[in-house]
Amino acid sequence: MLGVCYYPEHWDETRWETDARRMRELGISFVRIGEFAWSRLEPRRGEFDFAWLDRAMDILHAAGLKIVLGTPTATPPKWLVDEHPDIIPYDEQGRPRGFGSRRHYTFSSETWWTESARIVEIVAERYGHHPGLVGWQTDNEYGCHDTTVSWGPEDLKGFKSWLRLRYQSTDQLNEAWGSVFWSMELKSFDEVALPNLTVTEPNPATRLDFWRFHSDQVAAYDKMQCEIIRKHSPERWITHNFMGFVSDFDHFKVGDNLDLASWDSYPIGFVEKFPFSEVERNRWAETSHPDIAPYHHDLYRAVGKGRFWVMEQQPGPVNWAPWNPVPKPGMVRLWTWEALAHGADVVSYFRWRQATFAQEQMHAGLNLAGLDELSPGGLEAQRVAGELAALGPLPVTQQASVALVFDYQSYWTTMIQPQGKDFRYEELCFRWYEGLRRLGLDVDFVRPGASLDGYALVVVPCMTEVTEEARAALEAATGTVLIGARTGSRDRNFVIPSNLPPGPLGYATGNRVIQVSTLRPGLSDKVSGAIAGAGIRWRETLEASGEVLARFHNGDPALTKKGNILYLACWADEALLGSLLSLAAEKAKLETLPVPDYIRIRRRGDLTFAFNYGTENWALPAGSKPVLGGGVLEPQAVAVWRH
Amino acid sequence: MLGVCYYPEHWDETRWETDARRMRELGISFVRIGEFAWSRLEPRRGEFDFAWLDRAMDILHAAGLKIVLGTPTATPPKWLVDEHPDIIPYDEQGRPRGFGSRRHYTFSSETWWTESARIVEIVAERYGHHPGLVGWQTDNEYGCHDTTVSWGPEDLKGFKSWLRLRYQSTDQLNEAWGSVFWSMELKSFDEVALPNLTVTEPNPATRLDFWRFHSDQVAAYDKMQCEIIRKHSPERWITHNFMGFVSDFDHFKVGDNLDLASWDSYPIGFVEKFPFSEVERNRWAETSHPDIAPYHHDLYRAVGKGRFWVMEQQPGPVNWAPWNPVPKPGMVRLWTWEALAHGADVVSYFRWRQATFAQEQMHAGLNLAGLDELSPGGLEAQRVAGELAALGPLPVTQQASVALVFDYQSYWTTMIQPQGKDFRYEELCFRWYEGLRRLGLDVDFVRPGASLDGYALVVVPCMTEVTEEARAALEAATGTVLIGARTGSRDRNFVIPSNLPPGPLGYATGNRVIQVSTLRPGLSDKVSGAIAGAGIRWRETLEASGEVLARFHNGDPALTKKGNILYLACWADEALLGSLLSLAAEKAKLETLPVPDYIRIRRRGDLTFAFNYGTENWALPAGSKPVLGGGVLEPQAVAVWRH
Amino acid sequence: MLGVCYYPEHWDETRWETDARRMRELGISFVRIGEFAWSRLEPRRGEFDFAWLDRAMDILHAAGLKIVLGTPTATPPKWLVDEHPDIIPYDEQGRPRGFGSRRHYTFSSETWWTESARIVEIVAERYGHHPGLVGWQTDNEYGCHDTTVSWGPEDLKGFKSWLRLRYQSTDQLNEAWGSVFWSMELKSFDEVALPNLTVTEPNPATRLDFWRFHSDQVAAYDKMQCEIIRKHSPERWITHNFMGFVSDFDHFKVGDNLDLASWDSYPIGFVEKFPFSEVERNRWAETSHPDIAPYHHDLYRAVGKGRFWVMEQQPGPVNWAPWNPVPKPGMVRLWTWEALAHGADVVSYFRWRQATFAQEQMHAGLNLAGLDELSPGGLEAQRVAGELAALGPLPVTQQASVALVFDYQSYWTTMIQPQGKDFRYEELCFRWYEGLRRLGLDVDFVRPGASLDGYALVVVPCMTEVTEEARAALEAATGTVLIGARTGSRDRNFVIPSNLPPGPLGYATGNRVIQVSTLRPGLSDKVSGAIAGAGIRWRETLEASGEVLARFHNGDPALTKKGNILYLACWADEALLGSLLSLAAEKAKLETLPVPDYIRIRRRGDLTFAFNYGTENWALPAGSKPVLGGGVLEPQAVAVWRH
């Protein structure tokens, strides 16, 4: 199903009916509105104006559109910020981040919680039973623009309270943090300081707790909104629209509050954000890399416990990346089908019509700037709508054969203490995911500690802290389990395990990490044996009691095996990673379908989808009978067949 | 004629007579003094010491030198800053920019206007009728060191007042800015905030107004000084010495206050400042790029309504660039002749003698550091003086055949919203200028909206807002008009025109811009047809109703023609730009004289000048009879002949 | 002799005896403790707990270890910082540098002096006569993490006082600084401002005085600690552990307070800190560059007036560089022997056991993290201990044949006014040192103005201010004296000498510097004659009255000779530097032993040591009879023979 994001407040009221009608004509079923409209709903404290939104919702509903309403908390109005400056967040340099764009609040401000609860309650109460309303979106893109963590006085206050609860006494805090090092011991929680602007690096344990504190706050804040909404609008579902490549808070915990997850898919902008090489950035500039959107689809399907939407789908060039190329013809259609292939319920485009003013005026819409005229992207959406109608309802998404265990805390831990400047957790997971999909495999993301039942292959690119639940789940897994370096390298207090890494997995893997080398770009260590390639960036010296399947140039173990558990002692370069994942798939007895780097395959129910991100044709597997597309998959084309 | 900048206050009084005598012996006619001397003129509030300046001016005058006196407002003394800290400017990071160098004031401070008026009046009154005085310089290098825009409390106060005048009501302001987007609506002018340090980018319309506000202030501040000077010194002309590659305020508006423009020509330092490639930077390191000084000569001739000086000419290595090479032998002479060829009345060297102390002690002068001994640059100046005397008075500068419409606001607009990170307005204009001069053409800079009568060719590299006057002037032009991409892309409120870009020029060009792609370095789109090369950086999708002269690889229009108006739909790479300008010159029926990249030609009256920036000889056009130099133009040489 | 750094407070008391015993078993004689333990010694103001340290020292002593006790001033506890926030330093951006790591104090705070004196007195009094105590360490790594210079209110206060003493009157200050330039004149010392955050660069003379002020403070602060210690512990020696590549204060002046110098040798981390090319960084990533440790050994031998220790020797990978590779096998042993070859009395490893918590948990120790089990580095230390015992006492270190005059102020001066962005004084000295050692020569560092008696060759890479003492020492030198460019370019007030550079050495060298060109990377000027290669970065135009041994491409003098003094007029590229030093050695009649870039030689008494940093074997000079190692020096091996 298709949807669209719409801002009635941006356009003259006389245009609303036409807009609604044209949406329906295009084949759109859902419309999301309202998430930035606070200053129109409450222009001054206590002065409300709902008339316009009443009319807008009535018109949309009358046209047959199903409405998703956003709470407007991402954009507190100026009068509120002036009344309560404690709402304002601070950057890591200690500067207030002022009014004038969006997300100018810190989750630590108590005033902010009060004010958020107030406006959410008012909106939920008024519209909770509107006949056009089918669901809610809380806030907008938590964490976007680096807004999870804030470094101001309210944050310090909140952090102290959080620490008091976590540690009860400063003795326990000092013990947990190892404060004796450099005389950092505290005698009272009042002495706690923000872990920024220190002379040299602050205690990594403090920084991790500061990150956890903020992550916890996001989940709790979202829960507060959800509870209010559920009270006043019990029949409607709730989602939040997550962002791409934002890992500053634990999305799984926010997902626990929600009925379904959604995310905002800007595949081309993300090419500039992810640490690709310049060669890759040029190559994928006008299509995006073929795993960027899928990676997030699979991640947010997990966050949504199986249900997810794309709430905002890029429909053409955007405005916020360093460069913003027009997507190649066909890509808007391709991305839409791809989201559906990965299990999306709805793909909703951002936005109906390009704005002519303010920050996002260079962001394409389904209609040209200010006009009632479909843009190139709008025409592609129209085509998908027709194809979707022809194909009929899509089957249910099944469990994949491969699980990738994804752990937000490992991102925080390795950002806090990279040890090698280019150790980036997100990049690592992305590359493993890419490697699996190059083998034609479907992948599920799994939360640490969740059951791994039914997976033929489980991969853990890195999991710095292995909790008791995570250990148990991994040891209970019956498939092949592949564990990456740096796993189990810290306990919950950011302390090296007393049996050395991989700590709780020492027994299961048969390994002990004696020392770690981080290698600057240009340095590598050759690996040979059952797999071949090179270790780069991170390379462990292992004492292995199990089988050694591959070794570094000096004979040190590079890949070990004990039972069904493989352990890799380095960051793998491209060759080594390919070799490793092939071996793992083989051990897991998985049937693979290796594809060129510009082709991707994905199954949903009895349908197989193929997508071409490249510049060359690709022949479908022999015998495929396409229900969409032809036997030859042209550049930017989509094919679907029953398997 | 030649001049020099002199600081009597830097040297023992006993040396002044010798200095004045040696200036005259060298062939110098003009001497600029006084622009940094506030602390010597008024050591403490209300305590004045004019005796030294009286003596210095008398000595210079007695030696036959004509004096240009600077108002000392670029360097408020410490006692004044301590008395009135509100004078201090703030950087975009919100930090005060303290005392200890120069230009430590914000144009927004009311105290600063009062104090400036006071000192200017005192100085103008005392020296306004001095027999040696021929002219005034206001302040020094407005905008240098990023001092046009300031981000402090005084600036916010001034901005609010400026907005009140511009918009009268916040309803109108909200409408103009599109504040409804992201709930940025204001209910009172007191709610206006500085558009910096926001969470993500601030409203571009707000930023543009903030820039306009500061630009207006520079012009008004300068006007205030001019009015005081004219009251007390009605017979003398007034100038200001502008800087190179500073476009933060509208120089044309300041020029309106002045009798003539002047600028400070540091061709070598500017090589490091302009976004050249490393290859170009190395190539031109010791000569400068052959268009840097000419570009500014032609610009400031326009700002000065036909009259300009070089107030500060680099006479050797300077001190302020990342690297400061000694210019190749001959370059000081070449630059001097070149300025005259472009119409300068006077070329004045900075400075008479290298200082031995303080910030600029590594900046060469005509004399060695602290000594009465000509430097290598001093010897070249001496040679020019002799040649000038031999050649006799130079003819009057005539209107060129080509007009380049230069628009400061387009610089601000594209800096605020680059959309592609490397879209730099100054670079664009510079490359078009370079391309025209590679064809041997003379170029006039023209202010947007000014008459284009008499120009065979008019080029508009980019003009984001096309005012009614600018539209009328372009449509009235009878020559060939070449318009670059992004022109007419915004209205005065930073809003996309309702007929899409190029907005007011939609009819005249026959075009409508449907979407825009910005391309990262490495990406390009091939263009072929009447011109050939590639589009880079910025590429529009055009609907064209006129003739299409060239197309992109997919057939989209790249160059269109309707009547006498050409429109280019991209940023042109070097090949495309050369091809384009040749075509335009041909259509304009201009006779061209293509030159190698190290040779430049310029005409003044019946004289043609040639300059060699390279390492190879160049033969003068057949039949040229040089009145200066020979038939073969050697590296770093100058030739002049009558055409 | 070997030592180790130990933190009893990091480990359970029950482990101390085992630790002490195992230290002795390894062959360790010295143990440094206590330098970060303030919060354990004084948990709250006035509440002391010495019991644990009493016990620890008794146990170490009982095991036969000699104790070095550090004063704990590098880590003031939180209660003290909260009580006296004026202790906190400020960065150059004007931000306080908060509690939470170490060195969070400014030398300018009077409170800090009082508190430091208090804790040093208490500790010195209690332990000054402990039978296990042999020496003291003041504080820890002065200047590390950029903590010499601070930019806060206390610093401004202190700076004003320092200026009052230096200049007595503002007239003299204004004269010295050339404040007349840009109206920077001050009428009272109260008007002095910090020389940061100015609009453009501040007066270099002010900045130099600000740097001198801080450098003086470090020496005075250290002296204060030494005087207190000597009062209470008169029989023990005192040292300070200096850092590598920290030149913000004059180490010679601190050395005047001490009985011996020591330094902290992290050869691999420093590879990332020094401005090597990427090729060099990759090449030496796992061994370090073969001159990094030796350069500091020779420097600190001079600072310690002939006596020095390595107080902290890297025993494996560290944690603080951008990448932290494991050193190649053999390197820990090699570095240890190398330090001894250069005259170290003791090499003390940092640290006994890898910490499991806090900032340095990824820093290797002699034992694995948290365990009683030797790490790979620990095993190498054990091997050295055995070899040392076998070889017996090492001979006394003799004076070298070559003196390198090293001047901290030249570092400050050229940082303040690089003129060419890549003019780095430390790099220059390092490259000259490297060039000398590539000829197999031993080098002594010498303080400016110190006697140069007995040196066959004296090199002065650069000495911006040549004091009367320095001039006299150079002119009195009987060996060959080689002086580099930029020497004598400023007087004590940062003013260009009235006879132009090299100022006081104008007569002795026969030279006068007319102008200076700084060359961007990619530009160079060919030199030929008695030496060959190219000048890069800095190139002077010289008037030479002596002999010209080599010339630039245009005939300007590049190398001159007058009497025994050679003067080089540029920064030499690698070829030119090699050629120059060979010529100088030849003129000095020194016997050289050119070695490949991965081999180094060093003599101590009658022993010659050789070290292999490379990947290829090297044959010892014919006839060498190794007392350690074989006739073929393998990669990472050490050889010692009697000459």
UniProtKB/TrEMBL annotation, chains A, B, C:
Keywords: Glycosidase, Hydrolase, Metal-binding, Zinc. GO terms for cellular component: beta-galactosidase complex. Substrate binds at R102, N140, W320. Belongs to the glycosyl hydrolase 42 family. GO terms for molecular function: beta-galactosidase activity; metal ion binding. This is Beta-galactosidase. Pfam families: Glyco_hydro_42, Glyco_hydro_42M. The keyword Coiled coil does not apply. It catalyses: Hydrolysis of terminal non-reducing beta-D-galactose residues in beta-D-galactosides. Residues 400-591 form the Beta-galactosidase trimerisation domain. One of its GO terms (biological process) is carbohydrate metabolic process. Coiled coil: none annotated. InterPro entries: Beta_galactosidase_Trimer (IPR013738), Class_I_gatase-like (IPR029062), GH (IPR017853), Glyco_hydro_42 (IPR003476), Glyco_hydro_42_N (IPR013529), Glyco_hydro_b (IPR013780). Residues 5-390 form the Glycoside hydrolase family 42 N-terminal domain. It is an enzyme of class 3 (hydrolase). Its EC number is 3.2.1.23. The active site is at E141 (proton donor), E312 (nucleophile). The keyword Glycoprotein does not apply. It comes from the Bacteria. It comes from Rhizobium glycinendophyticum. CDD domains: A4_beta-galactosidase_middle_domain.
